[in-house]
Amino acid sequence: MDSVDEHVRFAELLDIYGNLLSDRQREYMRLHYAEDLSYGEIAEQSNISRQAVHDAIVHGRESLCRFERELSLLSEPKPEGLNVERIAEIIRCLERIASEDILYDTRRLKEAIRDLKRLVLSEQTDV
Fold it and tell me: Cβ–Cβ contacts within 10 Å for residue 64, how many?
């Protein structure tokens, strides 16, 4: 069972990085964290097993934690002067890369993440 703090944290991470998850992970996590449905309720609604819901949410949480470890968009204080357009552009690039069916070349993904991190961190020090 998730603690309240964990539940809130994953809801926030889902808001930030949700578009980088698979459609299935994003939907099940949204139902669990935003709609507060149990795994059993999601399974019944989706006509799948409770274990399948559990697995999708566990993998989704692992992905969200990995994104946050790399990008730290939730844990870092955000200055008011961030270049929102540039950040949105890099996030759209990350979404395109992550939506590819098979991701053989992770170089482009790593470069986009590095660009985003560099942009966010450099603008924090400029403020």
Answer: 23
